[in-house]
Amino acid sequence: MSDHSHLEPLPVNIPSRPIIEVKELEKIYRVGEVDIHALNGVSLSVARGEFLSIVGTSGSGKSTLFNILGGLTPPTRGTVQINGRDLTQMSDSDRNDLRKRTVGFVFQKYNLLPTLTAEQNIQIVRDVAGRPIEFDAQFKEVLVMLGIEQRMKHKPRALSGGEQQRVAIARAIVNGPAILLADEPTGNLDSKNSDIVLNLLRDLNKRLGQTILMITHNPEAAAYGDRIVQMRDGKVL
C-alpha cells in the first residue's frame, strides 16, 4: 500500500468537547402490553477522533444505541449531543440532515444497489446530500487507500464480499461525516477480508482523524479500537 500520509485530516472544531455525549439514555419499546427496556440509563462520552469498539451479545442494546446516535430512532428519555447539537431537540428534517452530513453508516450487509456500479453507489449518496457527484482529489486518494480505485466501474455481483464492504465504507465517508458508525462491519467476511476491513477502518481513524464507533461481538475485532465499551442488558458496564 502506498503512503497516503499527506491526506488532510477531516475538518475539526471545538476540539476540547466530546463529539458524542450521551447521558441517562433510555429506550423503551412497547410490545403488546409489555415494556421492553432496550436501553436502561446509558451514559457515554466519545472524544473527537476516537475509535471506540462497543461489544455485547445480541439483545444487549448496542444496535439500539447506534440507531439513536444515527438519528434513526428517538430515545424515550435522556440527552444525546452529536457534534455539539442536541439530537433530542432536532426536527425530522434536522435528523435527516444529520444522516446526510454528520453521520456515516456501515452495516454487516453491504446494502449496495445491484443495478449500479460501485462508483454510482457512492455517487448517489453525494446526490442525495445535494453535492456534486464528482469525486475530489482527496476522496480519490481514499479510494486508493481502500484498494478499490480500479473497481469503480464494476457492479456488486462482480465484486468480492471484501470489495463490496470497502465500497460501502467509501460510500459512508464520501460526504466527510464527522462520525462513522460501523455495525458488525466484518460479520459477513472471512478472516482475511475481516483483517483488511479492520485495518482500513483503523487507517481512516489514524490518517484522517475519523471518529469511529464500531459494534462487534468479536473480541479480536474490538481490539482494533482505541477503547472497548461493554454493554449488557441495556447498560454500559
Give a brief description.
The protein has 7 helices and 10 strands.
| CATH H-level superfamily | P-loop containing nucleotide triphosphate hydrolases
The rough form would be described as: globular
CATH topology name, in short, is Rossmann fold
Distance between the termini: 38 Å
Q: What is the strand arrangement across the widest sheet?
A: 6-7-8-3-9-10
Keywords:
single chain; 237 residues; alpha/beta; Rossmann fold; six-stranded mixed β-sheet; four-stranded antiparallel β-sheet; 7 helices; 31% helix; globular
Write up this protein.
31% of the residues lie in helices and 26% in strands. It has one domain: 3-Layer(aba) Sandwich (Rossmann fold), CATH 3.40.50. It contains seven helices and ten strands. It starts with 19 loop residues before the first strand and ends with a strand. Helix 3 packs parallel to helix 5 and helix 5 packs parallel to helix 6. It has 237 residues and is α/β, with parallel strands linked by helices. The longest helix is centred in the C-terminal third of the chain and has 18 residues, at 191-208. The strands form two sheets. Strands 6-7-8-3-9-10 form a six-stranded mixed sheet, sandwiched between helices. The chain has helices spanning 62-69, 92-101, 118-128, 137-146, 161-173, 191-208, 219-222, and strands at residues 20-31, 34-46, 51-55, 77-82, 85-86, 103-106, 179-183, 211-216, 227-232, 235-236.
